[in-house]
Amino acid sequence: xxxMTHCKKLGYYCCVLLLAGLxxxxxSRSNKSMEPMGDSQLAPVATMxxxxxxxxxxxxxxxxxxxxxxxxxxxxxGGIHVYKGRVQVSxxxxxxxxxxxxxxxxxxxxxxxxxxxxAFTKPNKTCMVVLADSAAGALGKTQANFYVTMDVAAANRLxxxxxxxxx
Length: 167
Known about the structure:
Elements: H1 2-34, E1 46-48, E2 56-58, E3 62-63, E4 69-72, E5 76-85, H2 89-102, E6 106-112, E7 116-122, E8 125-133, E9 142-151, H3 152-155
């Protein structure tokens, strides 16, 4: 009988110590969660496609520089930009449509079969996006190909030779 009482007391003391440890651990963390986070502490949630500034991708997508190229002249800017990352095609499609809409792009076409193709326009700009899963399926990466053109001359009201357009 005496052994039973000692076991109960030992169990009781163990529970009290466990509770004290849990409460102490939560109390020390609660002060940190009350402090507002500064801008330097926030992790980035999006990345911009090259130098366009109005085409965003989730941070998981990384530029494949070996498969990308860009061209810039006085009257034209554009390129093919290839990004890869571990995201689902359907969620990436939804993200791109929402972010392009937020940046005032107009969705003018969409087609899907094995891949998803999206077409967007803005005054003096076009962007086509092709989204594809890798052959590895769920273990592979999703690829996003961006085909972007920007008519710099038309945006500045110039003809392709850099001369002002007369009206």
